[in-house]
Write a structure and sequence with these properties.
heterodimer, A: alpha/beta, six-stranded mixed β-sheet, 6 strands, globular, B: alpha+beta, Heat Shock Protein 90, about 35% helix, binds adenosine-5'-diphosphate, binds magnesium ion
Amino acid sequence: MKLSEIREILQCEVLAGEEDLQVEVHQVVASDGMSEILAFAKSKELMITGLTNIQSIRTADIAGVSAVLYCRGKRPDKKVIEFAKQKRIPVLITQMVMFDICGILYNKGLKGVS
Amino acid sequence: MAAELLRESFEIQGRNYDKAGEVSGEIKVILRDLGIEAASLRRLVIVAFEAEMNVVMYARRGTLTLILTEEDVNLEVRDEGPGIPDIELAFKEGYSTASDEMRELGFGFGMGLPNMKKNSDELKVESEVGKGTLVVAKIRLNSNA
Ligand SMILES: Nc1ncnc2c1ncn2[C@@H]1O[C@H](COP(=O)(O)OP(=O)(O)O)[C@@H](O)[C@H]1O
Ligand SMILES: [Mg+2]
């Protein structure tokens, strides 16, 4: 699924990487635990988290995910967004909560990592 | 022993959560630019990142040394800090002495050392209580160069 489709489905605002929304993701890694993301991501996933600090983007970079989606309307600081742009990691935010996001994306055919 | 192609050291500041993870991000760029193959690079930076986070969370300061040879990438992370009284226990998944502040950062779920073990070909942890900890990791490069 393209990031642009995810933006539509989850009514996201795009904070970084507007030019990269044609990127495709097939799998999702969702957690507020950064070590958990690192343990389960295999690279090129969509990472969903409620944690909006700088470590979330550092973890995304280290794990090699394709994009970060922040749930329940949490908005990262400017410097976090700037850092994501520098690392060329698209950042989306949605008002939806984690459970709903995962349910919706699962129904659309995206799979989790395990 | 294969000849060293690169040796570089980086300082890590304890408790500096703003910078936490910066060294590992830098290492990723250095090794990617050198053309290290993606799978080994990924494993290495996960080990580096978890080790760096542990220094930031638990120690006063530390040094991460990156050593690249034709066969492998090695990390030596040495810190001045409280040390680890029971290393075997520290390796148990879920065991953590992290504070709430650290958990709010998304760390402190007791998966760091297990993640490091899983992603390295050799991992050695030595520690002296009240002095500090040394983590040495080796990741072999898939030879196709
Ligand atoms: N460099 C270190 N100095 C002191 N204690 C450490 C260090 N690294 C790890 N530890 C101890 O080992 C425990 C487990 O570490 P780890 O597996 O990385 O999980 P976490 O950091 O999430 O607690 C830590 O909670 C801490 O008590
Ligand atoms: Mg840790």
